[in-house]
Design brief:
This protein has about 210 residues and is mainly α. Helix content is about 50%, strand content about 0%. The longest helix has 29 residues. InterPro entries: MOB_kinase_act_fam, MOB_kinase_act_sf.
Length: about 210
């Protein structure tokens, strides 16, 4: 799928620079293993399962970074269709509205346009995955106790990108010829978060029928 994504989407329009794994590290080897399984045509439900003998936190870390890169690429290519005028509210249809909150500028949930929300989201995730105290890359350095809790928050917010793109920009996906590739990326994401119970089921409601 990685090759297909590069063919369908314009990699120069990546919303944020790609986060790369350092060659020679355990995380890099896990990433290669995950990519090999993904390209082999295996059932996505099997692909997301933790390989025997591997650390669950390393496996989650690899996927969080990979999903950030993939969703970053999808939205970056589609961002010209998602503007302040077309999407003045970050939402998933009339029923779901997503407000932004962080620990710095936005102390309370704040209504933002979809482009503003996406900018805040990608900056926030990039800051977290580059933080060695949260996503350690050095051998022997343990993950923090709250690591999976942080990943749940990241993945929950990344899921909202899928919600917005599918509900508000599905015509653009079809026009780009990207429907199959976005669907595969979404299913991979969906099966992963379900495998490890990383997102509250209530967050999944806007796209509850998508995996089928």
């Amino acid at each position: 799928m990685a090759l297909c994504l590069k063919q369908v989407f314009n990699k120069d329009k990546t919303f944020r620079p790609r986060k790369k794994f350092e060659p020679g590290t355990q995380r890099f080897e896990l990433y290669k293993k995950a990519q090999a399984s993904l390209k082999s045509g295996l059932d996505l439900k099997a692909v997301v399962q933790l390989p025997p003998g591997e650390s669950i936190n390393d496996w989650i870390a690899v996927h969080v970074v990979d999903f950030f890169n993939r969703i970053n690429l999808i939205y970056g290519t589609m961002s010209e269709y998602c503007t302040e005028r077309s999407c003045p509210i970050m939402s998933g249809g009339l029923k779901y509205e997503y407000r932004w909150q962080d620990d710095s500028k936005y102390k309370k949930p704040t209504k933002l346009s979809a482009p503003q929300y996406m900018c805040m989201l990608m900056d926030w995730i990039e800051m977290l995955i580059n933080n060695e105290d949260i996503f350690p890359t050095r051998i022997g350095v343990p993950f923090p106790k709250q690591f999976q809790q942080v990943c749940t928050k990241i993945l929950t917010r990344l899921f909202r990108v899928f919600v917005h793109v599918y509900i508000h920009h599905f015509d653009s996906i079809i026009n780009m010829g990207a429907e199959a590739h976005v669907n595969t990326c979404y299913k991979h994401f969906y099966y992963f978060i379900r495998e490890f119970s990383l997102i509250d089921h209530r967050e999944l409601e806007p796209l509850v029928r998508m995996p089928q």
